[in-house]
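Data deposition worksheet. Section B asks for the primary sequence of the deposited chain exactly as it was used as input, without tags or linkers unless they were present during the calculation. Section C holds the resulting structure in token form. Section D is free text for depositor observations; keep each observation to a single sentence. Incomplete worksheets are returned to the depositor.
Section A, Depositor: J.P.
Section B:
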Amino acid sequence: MPATVGARPAGTRRWPVGLVWAGPVLTVLGLAATFWLDRLLRRAGLPELASLPASSIPTVVAAVSAVTVGAVLAARRPRHPVGWLLAGLGLSLTVQNLTFSYTRYGLIARPGALPGASYLAGFNNGMVIMWLACAGFVLLLTPTGSLPSPRWRWWARFAAAAAAVWLLGSIVDPAPLYPEYPDIPNPLAIPVLFGPLTALAAVALVVLAALVVGAVSLVLRFRRARGTERLQLRWLAWGAALAAVALLVAMAALIADDSGSNLLNLALGVSAAVLPLATGAAILRYRLYDLDRIVSRTLAYGLLTVLLGSAYALVVLGLGRLLPQGSSLAVAAATLAAAAVFQPLRRRIQRLVDRRFNRRRHDAAETIAGFSTRLRDEVDLATLTGELLAAVDQTMQPTRSWLWLRQPPARMRPDR
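Section C:
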């Protein structure tokens, strides 16, 4: 078989794809092992040491979401770093939970029952920051896969060095389970570094600051972006807005009631699950031009559901007081009333939402309706040509436009 000059071997393009799809498999296996270890901890009478209680189920969903979206991105665009970072985020979150349960069972519940538990204690402390570092770089490199400008290189190197220092410092920390269990030693400890390791808190602050810097870089990108990149960043903006709303609701519930911690964990999981999905849609350019329509339809049907539900409840309660108790006539009347007003109310709400949140579609519809009205009364071809080009320019906004009129065949031309 003749060889082609410069041809690439068949296996060189496939190994990264196979590697990245191992991420979701390892995540599922790691989560299964974590749930098994948590079950052993509960049997040992230490349920407080479980790393995945019932309230942390959204965190599991977030890990699966991140690693799955990362695998899809890396499989389709292996050279784009955000896919690998998302996969690393999901894996690091899974490894953190797994090593937490592993070390607590092997060092506290049943000392010596699990091999190598003491070696993983410091590593577990380091993984707490690693997934946050991955999240910071995802924000910094989305959606193009490169830094906003060369001037950001120093910060990227500084943030990466801070994450590496935190991980290495945690591994050699003399007291990895301090302050809860200070008597458990670390076989990888370097006692000479005990004093310098007290500065790890400052390193952790740098990694946390990387999240804020990454968010600021997205804002700066959005201000300078045009065309496709601006549409990509709008996906991230809506994902961040949903995450922020979830966090605000959870924080309000936590302040109002001490039992709102479960709602806070739920909001954190929802936020961490939504952002990878929005990032994947932005980078893969999935339905970039349909975002306004998605938002307007969501708002319209949300408002419609609230209004119809309220009207249904009012009709049922009102007729329930007038009719005998146990009568199904109130429910039937409320159902018929809701069905009768559904379509007219939906159209009216959709127009109101489009006028406020999807202005381009509303203006385009108004322009086409006006052109259709003028078309019925106009017979001059030159005027119709100008009207048609003006309508296309207002609705589609092309850079250039032409109108080609096909000449009728000679046998169909009127005799002169």
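Section D:
Residues 291-322 form the longest helix (32 residues).
DSSP finds twelve helices and no strands in the chain.
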